[in-house]
Amino acid sequence: MIHSATRPKTDLSRFLNPRGVAVVGVSGDPTRIGGQALRLLTDFGYQGRIYPVNPKYPEVRGLPCYPELAAVPQPCDVALIALSAPHVAGTIEQCGKAGIPFALVLSSGFSEVGAEGKALQERLVAAARKASVRVVGPNCLGILNLKDNARIGFGGTSQLTTLKPGPMAMVTQSGGFGFGVVSAAAYYGLGCNYAISSGNEADLTLLDWVADLIERPEVEIVVAFMEAIDDGRRLLELGERALKLGKPILAWKVGNTAVGSQAATSHSARMSSGYELYRAAFRRGGLVEIRDVDDLIDISKVFLIRKLPAGNRVGVLTLSGGAGVLLADRCVEHGLELPALSDATRDKLSKTLVSFASFNNPIDATAHGYNDNFASYGKAVRLVLADPNIDQVVARVPRGKAAGPWSENLLETLRGTCKPLILNWPTAPDDNGQVLAYLEQHGVPCILGAGRAVHAMAALTDFARKRDAYLKAGKRPLRRAIAPQPLELPPTRCTLGEYRSKQLLARYGVPVVNERLLQPAAIEALASCPLAFPVAVKIESPDVPHKTEAGAVRLDIRDLAGLKLAARDVVAAARRHKPDARIDGVLVQEMASGVEVIVGAVNDPCFGPTVAFGLGGIFTELLKDVTHRFAPFDADTARGMIAEVKGAALLHGYRGRPALDVAALADVLARVSLLITDHVNRISEIDVNPLFVRESGVVAADALIIVKGES
């Protein structure tokens, strides 16, 4: 693959809207791929020049057909290649000689089919580099530019006349599915200016296209349908750019349930599964995770209001008490607040609605609106929007003949407010369908289903919160807890024992338990314990990373005889567990106590160094109560990380228990993030388990570090 770092950024405007397209491998049969590609250009309004290329034909569909790319007139910006895989690399070389800067390879039979196809794709990449040609594909459906009527590719969906331009753009790693989503969005009134099927991404990737599209003024929302990416840090950068521009990237990640192929040596590797890191990325910046077509449509609609809420305070208005309760429940579940209305608003509502209406939030205007053609309900919406305690409103739409005039008045109300309003459509979509169409044509989202409406509102609110924080704080410089520290690491890949691992942690200022590493014979000769009782006794062996599972740990040893017996037991247990294990000695440690947490770090191949945090025991292993951050970060970021776990209340004092030293815990998280970042080329995993959090301070009772070999 041609990585973005190795190629200069290219202006892709002529790829999206070329002055000329050469269809290489064109066919006169409109059912074949080469024939479909030609028909999409000739029959759907493309304004550029079309150059069929195939030595078999003198002309195709009334157009002169050229024997090779060298004969194609200029300007020609794109070569659309519909040849068998073995002929593609040579054709890309011809593109370079002919001065054609872009190639779109529809052909399959490359890396997706095995070793032979992978070799063909490597030839394609080499040819593209040599010819300075940028490539989409291979194995893709092409590009849809509905704004300029340039449909460059093939496929049944690309031939639909119902596709429509609009402020959305989509990049998809699954062309068939992604283009189908574009069609579904059009059915619900959501247009898409651009859709790109990225295929095997031998050159231009999904992230390359997201980076290009988000900068275009005619694009307000970018949708990224992804199976996998290879540059997670670039995804984070794009999320930050999305915040700066105020344009959301709707991130749709699939393939999330497969078990990772890498054997997890440490807890940290098990805590940092691939999808969890994607989700951590989506929670940052202007990335909004979606999971289905409904999410895409609903969330896009609310963003196209072009109004961001100032906060998470929601006013709920309905004509039905049950609907209000349902909407209120969903708001609370999504972290949205339903504050009390101001006294002034309540007073005005009491003079507007009937006496038996509910003036609390949610506001139930009751069915009395039928008696005044919903004039009072419309005024109630206006009053709640104006309330200083409310940042945004979700309301149910009235039914019947009065819904039309009510909608017209609503538009007038909305022109005078910067607060977003979302309408929860109360019945079948075709009930008062003309009113629904009228409202949505004028930028008022109508969403079927209370849960869907609130979910979209929550996505808008979260984006607004992140953007507001970004604009206020900017890109805050990292406040390092410690300067980079030199470490002496073995030259080859290995797992360090607990004792050596904790020495490295201590170099970065992570508190560790007081301990002594002794040989078994030295323990047998002891006349007194080197530490105060009680103590813990553990085997020290790089070949036994999980000592508890091996039975090589003894706790709460209270006298010298027990210490010697425990030392013999852990050595024997290690030998039974792994007869050829290297035994570096026996660790004698002070007994530590506190609330157990796990701190882990992994050098992920996609996202780079990441840190995971979770409470110990069942909270991590069974309940998966884990949160992640991308290293390096400082203690302020770590505090937010700690607050995200569901069991965080245990750290802040629960049911009369004393509050623990969260500041010290945050400091350790930050220091671990620096350790793995500073030594990213040599350390692959760090596992601190358990780390005990106390009323004052923290202490690491066990640790494991995995070292990569020198490159």
Report the CATH topology name of the largest domain: Rossmann fold
> Which shape, going by the Cα principal axes?
flat
Quickly count the domains.
Answer: 4
> What is the first-to-last residue Cα distance?
21 Å
Identify the CATH class of the largest domain: Alpha Beta
- The secondary-structure class comes to alpha/beta
**Radius of gyration, in angstroms, nearest whole number:** 31 Å
- The whole-number mean of residue pLDDT values reads 93
Determine the number of helices (DSSP H or I, runs of at least 4 residues). Answer: 22
Number of strands: 30
Give helix % range: 25-40%
Structural account:
By secondary structure, the chain is α/β, with parallel strands linked by helices. It has 4 domains: 4-259 and 268-300, Rossmann fold, CATH 3.40.50; 308-473, Rossmann fold (3-Layer(aba) Sandwich), CATH 3.40.50.261; 514-590, Dna Ligase, domain 1 (2-Layer Sandwich), CATH 3.30.1490; 595-707, D-amino Acid Aminotransferase, Chain A, domain 1 (2-Layer Sandwich). Helix content is 35%, strand content 20%. It has a 7-stranded mixed beta sheet with strand order 9-8-11-10-12-13-14, with helices on both faces.
